Amino acid sequence: MTQPWQLSLSSQSRPTAPPPDTQTIAPSPPTSRPSYPPLKDKSSSSISINETAGKAPATVFGLYFCTGDLSKDNCQACIQTAIKDIIDSCPSSKQAIIWYDYCELRYSDTNFFGLPDTNGFSMINVNENTTSSRPVEVVSQLVKDAPLAQPLMFKSQAFISESLYALAQCSSDLSSKGCSDCLTTILANIKACCTSSKGWRFLAPSCWIRYEATPFLQNLNGTSTYITQSYCSSNNFPSNGASQGLVRLLSSLTKNAPAMAGFYYTIVREKRDMLYGLALCRGDLQNKREDCQSCLNDASRSIVEDCPSKAQAIEWYEKCFVKYSNQRFFGMLDSVNRTLCGVEQVSADADSATEKLARSLINDAVKNKKFVSAGKLVISCSLSSYVLVQCSRDLSKGRCMQCLQRGMDKVSSECKLTNGWRYLSGSCTLRYETFPFFNTAIISTVSL
């Protein structure tokens, strides 16, 4: 963590003695050395586990979990360090908890499994303030989503263009309801103390939330982290019938698009109201129905939550987008768009070569019946560019070309010399990263 942070104990928190990026709690008086649960042996096989050791009345209950964006190897390293430190810091204690940035280890002589414990503490960035309500809005959505994200109960978001990175997670012993109760409680604590700070977190024994303005998520290109954007019109549906029709529309889109090579559009009539909808999965998912289905399910749920009763909306997810309107839009270019830029710089030569690759892919995509093309360019032994461009298949070739060229012009202007960019519209998408984010075994690639 790069910012200076201040520890803020809740009114019921227990004493702490924190080394950097670590918190340790040992509330119980010394007793005979406990028989530790066999967590050390398990840490190489899972990023979350709970175990017991010993027989009553000397049973010890223990668990660990790592943040869902952490690899198993990094999780193992974090837990092994935590095991050593908790033994050194809390010798012979009946109960102890140790927190690191990316993992938690906990044991007790009392069975705490399944019991939400929110008796924790907050930490804030004391050097920077913000008046934006956006971080709380994002974390509030994660608090809703994480309990449903089985089995890890972990959700994270990264809005690169907004410098907003956040996560919410529960320990795996909790039920979905217990997780929801835990996260809701600690979010209320944050709202009461810390939302004016540009960076905060709350660590409880059973759940965490965290927001920062600088990247801390460990796997932005992996499945644990999803990057989303949404557009909601200012006008609402003219009647309740349209809201009811939206449920049927989204159900039809999520059901049929995976079976139609990742693309489907349809119309739903609800009394006097007409609704038009479209769903598109990323090109490398056209033969992976389950992944396409999962993404569309998430996007369909989010579009209703993010844009309640709105007459038009678009929800962009990592691997798909969903769009609807009460006005016919099939075959037309959408003027709504978002641009996201990377945070690191690349050389002018790398930037120019990547743009050349992207423009080549645009020409290739309009010749492809599925309007998608992807490519890889090796720039140096340590740097490669990966680009994917795609249009919605309701467009003509000419309008697909127009949409992609418009997006390319925008990112080349707004994201000059950055190590990644995205252009999101309701008609096409373009994406460039310095890591492989698409499945090259499924989608054909073009290399320069």
UniProtKB/TrEMBL annotation:
Family matches, as Pfam families: Stress-antifung
Biased composition (Pro residues): 16-37
Subcellular location: Secreted
Residue spans crossing the bilayer: none
A GO-annotated cellular component: extracellular region
Family per similarity comment: Belongs to the cysteine-rich repeat secretory protein family.
Protein name in the entry: Cysteine-rich repeat secretory protein 9-like
Lineage: Eukaryota, Viridiplantae, Streptophyta, Embryophyta, Tracheophyta
Gene: LOC120259525
